[in-house]
Amino acid sequence: MTLTVWGLGAITAPVSAADPHEELVKQIKSAYADGHYDNFSRLTAQLPANHLFQPYAEIWRFRFFQKGQEKQSPDRDAPWPTESVMPLLDKHDNTWPAESLRRDWLEQLARNGQWELYAQERPKLRYRPDQGVECADLMQAAEQGQLVRYKVNAVIAYDKRLPRTCRTLLKNLYRMGGISANDLDRHVLQLAAVNQQSNAINFVKDFADTGWGRQLDTKLLQEAMSSPDAYLKRRASVEQTDLYLSAALTRKAVQDASGTAYDLENKHATSLSTPNLQWLWAHIGYRAGLQWDRNALTYFRRSSPEVMSNEQMEWKVRAALLIQDWPQVYQATLEMNPELQEDRAWVYWRGRALAAQGKTTEARQEWLKAVHPFSFYGKLAHEELGHVVQAPPRPELLTAAELDKAKANKGLQRALMLYDAGLRTEGFWEFNLQVAQMTDRELLAAANWANKNQLYDRAIAAADRTQSQHDLALRYLTPFRDNMKAKTSSIGVDEAWVYGLIRQESRFVTIARSGVGASGLMQVMPATAKYVARKIGLSDFKPADITEIDTNLTLGTSYLKMVFEQHDQSPVLASAGYNAGPSRPSLWKRRLGAGRTMEGAMFAELIPFDETRGYVKNVMSNTVAYSLLLNNGSTPLKQRLGIIQGSD
Question: What is this structure's pTM?
Fold first, then answer.
């Protein structure tokens, strides 16, 4: 099959005109964020009545008023009056501030049991619900006797402070007998596992008016979490509860999984309830799996799927992959909840497990379910079926009417205005709200519009959502092509790989800056920039230059080449090193062990950092797509992933 190379041509200047009220918009946002109502009121009075920012100004004014009401009655949890909130929602429907306001109102309605109004308003949400609304949905389902247990398990297994509605859900279920004290214990243990000690204590305090909460001493729980060794030494002399011991062992396992496993089996097993004991074995298996401990699967097998979080279920599969116990890989994927079972990753590995056991027909059935042209495991499944990944057919050209409709979309205009004013968070959500409601053709038009306005990350986000009509050149934009070709050619790195990495790093936002200080297209850290500049003789480099396109590409591609050479010329290891630091792949190779090998896909799946694991898979998948786009063909993904050699 001959493939056509698609390109977007020269990057055009933004099509938007400067907003004369841009500075005023910034000041309004600042006044709102600082809680300065008088200043906010003075500034919003200067905003034209038809300005695109009016939905924010009016809804933020409402929120100012409600915050004042809540301060006067902090213990009151009544929903906002319908006659106050509905006119705002109707007037500013299909804007992000209205969407956000409706979410909060729905949660209030659920907490107060106003189900008739909830049922009326819930379908009006246009974007996917946040966790609070999901819990409100579960509260409604519980009222109707339709609660799905595994969805409640996801709330219990959450390892951060739960939204108020989710805490209300759990309290109601506990009082109704829908969940047990052990379920509440498990949430505390999930928090303890990630050292969220204050949130664990606050959760117990939230339940002080229940039988579970009344029998707990938060001081002893705090001691068990913060000083597990001291607690374990004196536990015989203090009031006992299952939770204190479990919390202490949870914290111990974070530092020493195998040692805690020994103590659990030989010293503490008889002191624990079965659910907490099983959860601890899953936790120990998870911690051991992160260290590539080959005993991790043994620990997991002493647990039970009923008490395991999604993360623990996934690491049980990885623990089986580590030792290539294919029957257990298969079994572990079947033990997952229904939604997790159908994740492409686990469908793919279930197929691999079946194939390893000689069940070729069943394996192919799994891979057929996983096939997808743009996902990491979708591509691998395609290759397992014996096919070569190809570019999808290009859709028909967008018509002038379709392009004009995107250009006239008020929500997209508002998003661009917000981006231009530096309100990137608001612009991000405003854009996403609009594209969440679009057909494939509308998405392609929105992506085209965003690309012309140099909102490259939003163009990709829109193009990524299409279901049947796909434009490869919009999904995988190639801005700054002249700069890129020059740098990758002179430095000697694969242009498709670098594009794939940038798409994951910054999505071509030149001013992007991470929480740890990485900057620019290739998200180069300041210390790395200085080191690379010195190594390549870039004598005139100044830290302020780091976001300049040509300089950033020079530093980023040079560093990527260094990491590539350091790690056996493996793009998997180099991508991992670029994200997590160059020493990390060496550590993982040592854990694999001298004389052992592992296929690249399996190595990528076993990376212990969630961010880096997803990063490597996305970069490598992106590289295949960019190779199709730029070179009219591509090396198979499995071949690119290669074989990883362990070390001593």
Answer: 0.94
